Amino acid sequence: MLSILFIQLVSALSVFLPFLAGIDPLGGLETHTGVSTLVSILLFPVVVHGTWRLMRQRQGDLLEASLTAGPGDPSQGQESGFGEISRPLDVPRAQSHGEDGIAARIDSLLVTRSLITAFQPICHLGTGEIVGAEALTRFMDAPFRSPDQWFADAESIGRGLELEFLALETAMAAAARLPAHVYVAVNLSPSACLDLRLRDIVKKSRLGPERIVVELTERSPVADYARLAAALAPLRSTGLRIAIDDVGAGFSSMRHVLRLNPELIKLDRTIVAGIDKNANQKALCAAMLSFSSHIGGGLVAEGIETNSELATLAELGVNTGQGYLLGRPSVLTEDGSASWWKNRSPASGIDHRHHVHGGSFGAGATSFGGDPHLP
Asked: Is pTM, for the whole model, over 0.85?
């Protein structure tokens, strides 16, 4: 725009100055050339006015942007002392009214520690012996929310890891009342596995590392498997085991299996449900059995709910499983017993009467990342 203004100015001066000297500036020019020159002269004031308005508007826009951004606005790059634009400042975003309510609930929960752990038995399918138990977090604070919602709310305000580790500490304390031959499975996110607090909690626990199984769920993304494997390696060297949950429910779970080489693979309920009537599910289960054996891992069937499913899985060679048929989640008493423990002793066989009507605790669908088929 400035270059056009300069050309217009030169053209105008080339006409006006000769006029002032008494010379006809258009003399000797062809008609169309003279007309073009006159048009340029007439447009000169229009161009000047338009340029002036454009510059005023640009100045106003810059002023408005500076007032809106304010000092230190993280959305605006800041000029350094060398005239370069530095990276935006990391300033926390103001919480909305809804987020304020979430923060208040999570803060109260973290202070009062008002959560407990229920355990669901993991049994040997042939003998009925309880070989393990999955820890499932239950929340006591009002208003009622499923465990999934509590953890999602905490994650939404950046407090997810704090709640995960509170749930883990609670589970480890409760699991100390389980018999010494029973392992404890806890659900953790990959982010929690990368955190040094995990090692501290395991070290301080009254359980030996060989009795702890960390379950990674299918829905938890892993950005860097090498880093995750390296973080878990010191714990695994002490005897802690890794399980991949929900295998068969999606692609991510199989990627977890291939990249982390877990000691346990948990077969998702979608494969177990109705397996006694579906040849394709049987074939997939058999393939997973072969695969788990090949990598040196064990297979655990999740969500067993009928005697027919149990019988089919046992015939296929699945050794361990969990589900409503085998025992619902239950809170341990002071002596370490639970509703499903009272009617069963190790190697006593599976008591189907109890499994069908076993006691349960709470509502919701998950532990800290847990099984959506649990009550």
From this structure: no
